[in-house]
From TrEMBL:
The protein's name: Methyltransferase domain-containing protein
Transmembrane segments: none
Domain of life per record: Bacteria
CDD domains: AdoMet_MTases (cd02440)
Residue ranges annotated for the Methyltransferase domain, each copy included: 44-135
Length: 217
């Protein structure tokens, strides 16, 4: 995710439009059913929760839930969602989060990885895994390359990150870092952790990566 302001604070107020596009409805209906089942009774850490679209569906299933985001504006919106009464919210990046006294046994990040600069991937995953218990489940959800049809990647930086131009509600345009990772990239990134049961599911509009940390790590 870009540490620079990529315009998200301005976009957050109407961010749910991402979830209102009719062609995504089928994938989203399936995700809204499947995802909460993965977190039933778990201690969950959610990264980059944004305006809490997924928080509202996952938190009611969980035993404990911490949702992070760098944007206080986004967290304020997330706190107004139904079903988030038991959620602890924190304005933090995963790399800045102190190691929890009791590790989480599950993690979720929606539409986070695609915005994470490639050069920060290793550090972000190390920080995330440092907060998790052995055997913890991690699920990353993100846009399939179809999203790139709507907002084409117009340029790449020297690290290989792609950038889209997205319209803002004030009539301006934001330059947004957006990557579309491959399964091979995940296998390389996760190899040092001995991640088990890694599965990458590609639906039409979203991809979903699920893996478990080894029982001892
Ligand atoms: C595309 S939104 C996704 C929001 C939400 N997870 C969803 O699926 O609807 C990306 C979120 O990442 C947050 N963000 C940006 N940089 C971040 C960082 N370095 N650490 C954590 N969150 C960050 C933004 O504030 C924004 O809320």
């Amino acid at each position: 995710m870009n540490r620079d302001d990529d315009g998200y604070a301005e976009r957050v107020a109407f961010y749910d439009t991402v979830y209102e596009q009719p062609e995504r409805a089928l994938d989203l209906a399936w995700l809204r059913r499947w995802l909460p089942q993965q977190y039933f009774g778990r201690r969950v850490l959610e990264l980059a929760c944004g305006s809490g679209y997924w928080t509202q569906y996952l938190a009611p299933a969980a035993r404990a839930y911490l949702a992070l985001d760098v944007s206080p504006g986004a967290l304020a919106l997330a706190g107004q969602r139904p079903g988030v009464g038991g959620v602890a919210f924190a304005a933090a990046e995963i790399e800045a989060l102190p190691k929890p006294a009791e590790p989480f046994d599950a993690a979720f990040a929606g539409l986070w990885f695609s915005h994470l600069p490639r050069q920060r991937r290793e550090a972000a995953l190390a920080a995330l895994h440092g907060c998790l218990a052995p055997g913890a489940t991690v699920i990353l959800l993100d846009n399939s390359e179809i999203q790139g049809g709507q907002f084409p990647v117009m340029e790449y930086d020297e690290a290989g990150n792609g950038y889209q131009r997205r319209p803002r509600h004030d009539g301006g345009e934001s330059r947004v870092l957006k990557n579309f990772p491959t399964e091979a990239e995940f296998r390389i990134l996760l190899a040092p952790y001995g991640a088990a049961e890694m599965a990458l599911l590609r639906r039409e509009h979203f991809w979903l990566l699920r893996y478990c940390l080894p029982s001892r790590h």
